[in-house]
Amino acid sequence: MGETIDAGGVDLWVERRGTGPDVLLVAGLGDTAEAWQAQLDGLADRYRLTAFDNRGAGRTPLSEEPLSVPRMAEDAAALLDALGIPAAHVAGFSGGSFIAQELALGRPELVSSLVLVSTCARPDAYFRSMTGFWHWMAERAPSERAMLEAFFLWVYTPRAHADGTVARIVEETLAFPHPQSVDAFQRQLASFVRHDTLDRLAQITAPTLVLAGELDLATPPRLGRVVAEGIPDAEFEVLPGEAHQPFQEVPDLFNARADAFWREVGARG
Length: 269
Hints:
It comes from Streptomyces prasinosporus. The chain is α/β, with parallel strands linked by helices and 269 residues long. The chain is 43% helix and 17% strand. It has an 8-stranded mixed beta sheet with strand order 1-2-4-3-5-6-7-8, with helices on both faces. The longest helix is centred in the last third of the chain and has 18 residues, at 251-268. The radius of gyration is 17 Å and the shape is globular.
């Protein structure tokens, strides 16, 4: 069961599981703590995992103040402070990986390591055009189901569309009792489009693993490679046959790779 935590004046909905070294899981556009269910279930025997709803997603309200990636990184830092966690391994995907970058830049003492999944440092022309389409698609899709079915074309592999995985996720999303509003979706999306750490990546000191899906349309490997090349000594891996959310589609593979990386970081001290 989750709970609401006052994180610097923001009521963040938080799910916690397991025991061991601390891991903070940071979700992307529109996603809630449940997006990390396979990690909360699969890694709890080795780690104390914390996942949360970003502002405007799920059970965390969206305030009237301007939304930005640095502001959401401050929320993540305030959550760690409120929970009394001095440092954690931080894993973020898509927009959550943008937040994780800003967290590592703004509060480096809180970040033991970074796992950045489906990431980029500065959106390019394709990304901006794609997200511009998402912006008006959220308003004009004939139904929430149609919106999800279209949006997920950029998110999941052809395999997941063929084997029923996407259909299941659509049904679960429609049944979720805390849907994201169109306004919240658009405001989160706009903040992620403004993300830019390209000229500051060299300042990140945390050990970093960058994972990219070979078939990712939204943040293809070329964008992740730029991030890995900009962060000193970062590791970069392309996952063959995977798309934007491998932690959901192949959770055993993802969990094993993240676990191996965290153990390596821990062994280095």
